[in-house]
Amino acid sequence: MPRWRRNGGVPVRGQHDDRRPAAPGPRLDAAGLGAELGARATLVQFSSAFCAPCRATRRVLDEVAGMVPGVVHVEIDAEARLELVRALGVLKTPTVFVLDAGGRVVRRAVGQPRKADVIAALGEAV
């Protein structure tokens, strides 16, 4: 089960005894993703060709995007978009980012997520 992190991995206030507010997560736009953002949120999945959990993740994210109005699922081939992989610190596939309507990363997870976890993570974005 993946562990969802806030703000693209930036520590949340109170972690590591750091009293500074958490920095906002990175922001992605349609040009950077190569696809339009959802009106309410976007589920961005980094996959690789021979990754079995990536196929299962695709099904879960497609299902959730179909259930929640204004949410879209964008799948990115990690090997084809190495510049974006490096910029976002993607180390394994599948890696899933939840973006708000403005393209700000509000959550990220590595591994195959459960549908309930994706829906819960979307709650922070919408």
Automatic annotation (TrEMBL):
Region (Disordered): 1-28
Top-level taxonomic group: Bacteria
InterPro entries for the chain: Thioredoxin-like_sf, Thioredoxin_CS, Thioredoxin_domain
Protein name per the record: TlpA family protein disulfide reductase
Origin organism lineage: Bacteria, Bacillati, Actinomycetota, Actinomycetes, Kitasatosporales
Pfam families linked: Thioredoxin
Thioredoxin domain span: 19-126
